[in-house]
Amino acid sequence: MFATNCWVIAPSEGSECIIVDPGMPDISHEIGMIIEEHNLKPVAALLTHGHLDHTFSISPLADGYDIPAYIHSEDRRFIADPAGIHGEQFISQLQGMNFTEPKKVQELKNGSTVQLLDMNITAIHAPGHTRGSLMFTINDEILISGDVLFAGSIGRTDLPTGSAKDMTQTLKSKVLPLSDDLRVLTGHGPETTIKFERKNNPYLKELTS
């Protein structure tokens, strides 16, 4: 639903892995099939922000594998109370649904680092889409951009806690300084690179012209 990208990242077959943005509906069974197929062992789940299309399946996955979920402190409360971060039309669809946090939740802030799978994972606070939006770099090779940066576009800023002003500042101070060589795994749509987006993304070009 909402064509959200859920990423399962591992250095190789048969290794430990991390799960990024398990969305909706409950995709824990599908993720379990991927993990079984590649003989992986989940060790953590990363959440780029608190929208349900990125967090809906976090509790069954994190609790099922007994792993921690990582999220920015500003968006943590919306795991269990998603109504506060979604538009009115979406909230009406949540009537009668109950949400709970996973048993293990770790809060991240800008510059927080997590050492997993021999990977150096660094959190970048990137408000604009939501107040607690995060991007993650992995070993200076991969950028998990969530709903901040897409191929040819950026995330919307009109939902609760979103801010066009914050998004512009994020693009200027957090995205543009990134290395051209970073492979970008987006929250929706195809993957891209910082180099390609710097040259072709109209929102980034506008800031550098």
Provide a compact summary of the structure:
The chain is of the alpha/beta class and 209 residues long. It contains seven helices and 13 strands. Helix content is 25%, strand content 25%.
Tell me what the structure shows:
The protein has helices at residues 28-37, 52-55, 58-65, 88-92, 164-175, 194-200, 202-208; strands at 7-9, 16-20, 41-46, 69-72, 105-108, 113-116, 119-125, 134-138, 142-146, 149-150, 153-154, 183-186, 192-193. It has 209 residues and is α/β, with parallel strands linked by helices. It is globular, with a radius of gyration of 16 Å. Helices cover 25% and strands 25% of the residues.
Question: Layout of helices and strands, plus pairs?
Answer:
Layout: E1 7-9, E2 16-20, H1 28-37, E3 41-46, H2 52-55, H3 58-65, E4 69-72, H4 88-92, E5 105-108, E6 113-116, E7 119-125, E8 134-138, E9 142-146, E10 149-150, E11 153-154, H5 164-175, E12 183-186, E13 192-193, H6 194-200, H7 202-208
Parallel strand pairs: 2-3, 3-4, 4-5, 9-12
Antiparallel strand pairs: 1-2, 6-7, 7-8, 8-9, 10-11, 12-13
